[in-house]
Amino acid sequence: MQSSENAAAKSGTGVSMIESLKKGTSEMLVLSLLSEREMAIPQVNAAMDARSKGRYTISGSYALFYRLERFGYIRDSGRKIAEDGRRRQFYSITDAGRDYLSLLSQQYKDLSKAIHSIMTSSK
Fold it and tell me: Within 13 Å of residue 29, how many CA atoms lie on the same side as its CB?
């Protein structure tokens, strides 16, 4: 956890907004990727990196996955050989996870529209 001194130093720099956006969207993006196919954590991280051209990475992936699993949004699909040839733990999305993804996606769309309206309504 960052100290309030560090947070204050980042406030107004854009760094705090980027960190907050990543924190607020990471569950949605992980669930979205897992809705395509089951993956191991390193595969999810690589997919995020590739699709965002390196602009979106998350730290604490393992904690995020364990939290999603604890809430029943993803499940352990067992250990399998990954694309890199290593034996890895794979995860898949559950029906509850699909419902949660749908909710998060709608909330994200609604908030994005509201932000856009606020920023463009005076122009």
Answer: 21
**What is the spatial distance between Cα 120 and Cα 123, in angstroms, rounded to a whole number?**
5
Q: Could you report how far apart the first and last alpha carbons of the chain are, in Å?
A: 40
DSSP SS3 for 94 = coil
CA distances from 111 to 55, 103, 108, 121 (A): 21, 12, 5, 15
Cite the beta strand spans of 5-86 per DSSP E. 39-40, 74-81
Element housing 71 (H / E):
none
User: Which token pair is 68?
Assistant: 């999603």
Over residues 95-121, the pLDDT tens digits come to 999 999 999 999 999 999 999 999 997
- Rounded CA-CA distance 37/74 in Å is 12
**pLDDT attached to residue 15:** 73
